[in-house]
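Postdoc handover notes: sequence design on the structure in folder B. Input tokens:
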């Protein structure tokens, strides 16, 4: 591959703005075309971000300068679009989740491997300097041996602000598949593969109402649990408990704590690329009832803050350097497997063994990784 790497974006929805803005700032890549089912929308986004061409999905897949396809379509279309890109001889970066069924994702990854092509999967927040600062601290033994983690995402729900929230409460979404990828990807990046999961889930109501925009007051069905609690067991011995809810009057986003044999660490919100990391060490003595405030030590965040698109940049550099990239399709598949297994556990009431794994520890980002350098 020679720089700049030609990128074609499929899907010109809201999230395409941040992708197009960031990718256009990386010297190692060049966005050459935007495609969408609604070509006028593709044209609008292309002109807004200075992309020279626009058109249909087929136009992106057939463009001779496109080496990597960025799949920003709805989750139900992820496998179809990514598979078409692989068939066209393109590498793929897909928004999360990588797909909605195990068999489809497994075939996608096998087809890519047969053709010598890469698949990358969001979220790439795990490449951000916030999370990487915390990960380095754990790897360096700052809190001793990691034992367990707790994570929390709870909100009253996107139906209060989103003008078209129906898809977020449909099969393939809900708090588990919409927000779960951030938390589970981060946990797997820290601890390695999950070997089993158990979950409880419930709905606040069978239907909800749109509160914002032109369709305010319209009712829509709720197809999935809107509050879930997960217990995950990792092959290396760690455990984690996670709450994901669209039903909470108390707003708490991005709570992520890792507790080790020698101390505890606050990890930044895994839905963000930066944030606070702080730790405290275990007390050596404690009087009964002395539960006073503990003293946290802040960690200096190291690395360049960008945003979405960082995982794709790492992938194209990894291709050139013949090394594994970080946010792989294999990782995306494992995270999907954990989430689908959690759904199955809600129904069965039992732990579900995870059939997939990852072949090696998730790599870390070098401190000197510079998105704005020309390296290829």
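Designed sequence:
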């Amino acid at each position: 591959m020679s720089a700049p790497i030609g990128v074609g974006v499929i899907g010109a929805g809201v999230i395409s703005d941040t992708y197009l803005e960031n990718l256009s700032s990386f010297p190692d890549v060049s966005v050459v075309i935007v495609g969408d089912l609604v070509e006028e929308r593709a044209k609008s986004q292309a002109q807004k971000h200075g992309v020279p061409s626009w058109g249909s999905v087929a136009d992106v897949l057939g463009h001779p300068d496109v080496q990597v396809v960025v799949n920003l379509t709805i989750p139900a279309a992820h496998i179809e679009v990514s598979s078409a890109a692989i068939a066209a001889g393109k590498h793929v970066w897909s928004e999360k989740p990588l797909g909605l069924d195990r068999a489809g994702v497994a075939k996608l990854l096998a087809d890519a491997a047969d053709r010598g092509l890469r698949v990358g999967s969001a979220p790439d927040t795990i490449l951000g300097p916030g999370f990487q600062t915390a990960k380095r601290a754990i790897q360096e033994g700052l809190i001793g041996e990691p034992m367990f983690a707790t994570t929390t995402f709870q909100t009253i729900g996107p139906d209060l602000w989103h003008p078209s929230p129906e898809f977020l409460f449909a099969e393939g979404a809900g708090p588990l598949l919409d927000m779960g990828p951030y938390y589970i990807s981060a946990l797997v990046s820290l601890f390695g593969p999950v070997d089993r999961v158990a979950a409880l889930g419930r709905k606040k109501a069978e239907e909800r109402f749109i509160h914002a925009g032109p369709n305010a007051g319209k009712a829509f069905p709720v197809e999935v649990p809107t509050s879930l609690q997960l217990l995950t067991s990792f092959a290396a011995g760690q455990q984690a408990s996670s709450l994901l809810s669209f039903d909470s009057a108390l707003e708490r986003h991005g709570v992520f704590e890792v507790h080790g044999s020698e101390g505890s660490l606050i990890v930044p919100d895994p839905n963000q690329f930066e944030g606070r990391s702080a730790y405290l060490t275990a007390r050596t003595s404690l009087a009964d009832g002395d539960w006073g405030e503990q003293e946290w030590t802040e960690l200096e965040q190291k690395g360049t803050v960008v945003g979405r698109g960082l995982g794709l940049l790492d992938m194209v550099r990894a291709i050139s350097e013949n090394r594994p990239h970080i946010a792989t399709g294999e990782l995306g598949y494992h995270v999907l497997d954990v989430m689908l297994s959690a759904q199955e556990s809600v129904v069965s009431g039992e732990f579900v063994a995870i059939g997939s794994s990852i072949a090696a520890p998730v790599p870390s980002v070098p401190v000197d990784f510079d998105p704005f350098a020309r390296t290829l």
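Context for whoever picks this up: The chain has nine helices and 17 strands. Don't rerun without checking with the PI first.
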